[in-house]
Request: fold
Amino acid sequence: MSSAPEFSITVFTPVYNRASTLPRVWESLLAQTFRDFEWLIVDDGSTDETPALAASYIQQAPFPVRYFRQENQHKKVAHNLAVREARGQVMLGLDSDDRCVPHALERLWWHWNNIPETEREHFSAVTVLCQDENGEIVGDPFPGEKWFDSNSTEITYKHRARGEKWGFHRVDVLRRFPFPTDVKGYVPESYVWVQIDRLFKTRYVNEPLRIYYRDTADSQITGMIRDPRPGANGAVVGTAPELSACARYFFSNPRGVGKLAANFVRLLLHSTFTLGEKVRFAWTDQSWPARFLIVLTAPVGLAVFLRDQIRHSK
Reply:
């Protein structure tokens, strides 16, 4: 790991058995008009042709490509590895089943440098819109015509800009906020973003630069939707700080914040944490508004928990 950035951007692609779609990322990067980047692939224990495909890219690429392989440990561990190894000033995640437009990196870097240099130290990220394979915008636009400076909690729960978004974060900031590795399973990305929100701003830009494909779904995530129990511990760890941060927006978005609180109760009941740990997540470490919402939505969370138990009982 270099002490000083060697590139403007590190493009990070976590991959698990996606040899059939990884060429989308490869073709997108080959087409980029901006060349000051490296591509970092972290393979989470694939059993398909992903290693051979990555080896071929390393041989052919007109830009630096590095490949790391780990035993299956979920995206959180792959993310931490990528952050440690990144040689770029900022790190941009590009999933193994997506594309981006040819000028994506150029425009993202332009928007970052368009933040006045005297203010840039207070920013960690640039986030843009996504479009689907038919060119339709995915999700909601951000406030303002061109860009809007805020953070992920406020933009989601106060301004209600939901749906797929895309962007980078400063590598030096990401190194301060790693994912926990002592929790089994999936940990929501909000665990990291909420912590960054407390200290840094993000520039949100109404420009679609990533192509999001609706023909594939993350099996890890959809599996948790079908049965939340296996991933409950990680979901609790990720949701707890998000609820604490967004509870103050309840009156701006009662449905969204209330739903998050009820789901947190549901996940907490499914988790295997000790009683003391559950009290810490739900009370000791929570803001007062979040505590109020947990009590308020507890009956709904309990009802959904019981429904899960019936639905998934053998």
Q: What stands out?
A: Confidence is low (pLDDT under 50) at residues 217-225. Residues 7-216 form a domain with the Spore Coat Polysaccharide Biosynthesis Protein SpsA; Chain A fold (CATH 3.90.550.10).
